[in-house]
Amino acid sequence: MPCVAPRQWFTVRRIVVTGASDAKPIPDVPRRLDKPLVNCTAPISDSELTAALRLLLAASGDPSPASATQVATFFEYLQVARIGWAGHCVRREGVLRGLAFAMLLPGRTAMVMYPQPGEFGIDAGDQDAALAALMSDLDCRALRFTQVLLEAADEARRELALRHGFRRLTRLIYLERDARDPGVEAPRPDGGRWVSFTPERFELFARTVEATYVDSLDCPELSGLRPVQEAILAHQAAGRFTPELWEVLEIDGQPVACLLLAPHLGGATLELVYMGVCPARRRGGVGALLLRRALQRCRERGARHLTLVVDERNLPARKLYERFGFRTLALREAYLRRG
Questions:
Q1: Pairwise CA distance, residues 181 & 119, whole Å
Q2: Is there a contact between 78 and 54 (Cβ–Cβ < 8 Å)?
Q3: pLDDT > 70 fraction of the chain, expressed in percent and rounded
Q4: Which stretches of 95-201 are DSSP H helices?
Q5: pLDDT of 266-315, one tens digit each?
Q6: Is 301:155 a contact under the CB 8 Å cutoff?
Q7: Residue 34: CB atoms within 10 Å
Q8: Which SS3 state, helix, strand or coil, does residue 13 take?
Q9: Structural domains in the chain?
């Protein structure tokens, strides 16, 4: 089973780097709160959320908080993908000193975000207290698992993750390709057809996705942690769910692979949320066929880029993506906490 929550990183990265969205900017909220409290750990209120997200969405190493427009884009993403949230903070004299936030993803998982201690006045001890409060909150929600994504240099955040029960899963490689390059021919599956998603075909997609998870090299540690129906819901939350961009490939009347795509906000990028091939059809060119189909769909929709994420241990997939001209955007360390 592939990592699911880390795919939300693409959306967060686009927001941080570009801030592009049709959403209207929301009013800036100062870091000092209206009612000063001393040494108080408490849930983040709706009125405090903007100030919290300005710190959480700030680019790594950038001394400036994220803009109000970037925060508005993030709010839009949460709404479009039907993602809930939970958060806790520590305040001293009304100023944020510790902060932990979780995206509550469909499919009973969560992705946790928290700032690097030492940045924006965040205190290491207060950050530890805020994360402890959040994890206690999440423990009451019957989640299957929770994930954190860290950069290699995030030593302080790594120590916090380990202290609160996270364990390293793998390194994830985020890739992108210019979809306008005409050098890839359109797919022509011999004797095959593309079957798009409808509610009536949910079980077809669930069976096909589950079959492709068998002996997968993408985050195999996640196999069996939740039913495939919940994984499908999580895949739908990876971007703006668009049923016609979800397809099962049938050859000779049998499902052999699936391709799940989602447009990012703004439409300039399609994300390859998941693609998988059933074991009996692997190493027969079906993976390349799926990538050609993905690039074809990009060109049909006028998308400029195709993005995806892969487990660094999945060498066959990495070689395929390299052959198709994908370039590395970023590396992230994925940490997992069960339950």
A1: 41
A2: no
A3: 86
A4: 124-139, 155-163
A5: 779 999 999 999 999 998 899 999 999 999 999 999 999 999 999 999 99
A6: no
A7: 8
A8: helix
A9: 5-170 (3.40.630.30), 176-338 (3.40.630.30)
Closest by Cα among 292, 314, 310 to 247: 292
Structure token digits, residue 13: 């990265």
Please return the burial class of 25, using the count of CB atoms within 10 Å of its CB with bins 0-12, 13-18 and 19+: middle
What pTM was computed for the model? Answer: 0.87
Taking alpha carbons only, the member of 322, 206, 189 closest to residue 258 is: 206
Count of C-beta atoms within a 10 Å radius of residue 193:
11
Q: Enumerate residue ranges in the chain where pLDDT < 70.
A: 1-39, 182-191
Can you read off the two tokens belonging to residue 209? 């996705």
- Name residue 263's amino acid: P
- Strands 167-178 and 145-150, bridge-based pairing: unpaired
d(CA 208, CA 212): 6
Cα 12 from Cα 7, distance rounded (Å): 9
Identify the residue whose tokens are 């999580």: 234
- Compute CA distances 21 → 83, 253, 266, 300, 313, whole Å: 18, 41, 6, 21, 34
Q: How far apart are CA 130 and CA 52, in angstroms?
A: 12
The confidence score (pLDDT) of residue 215 equals 93
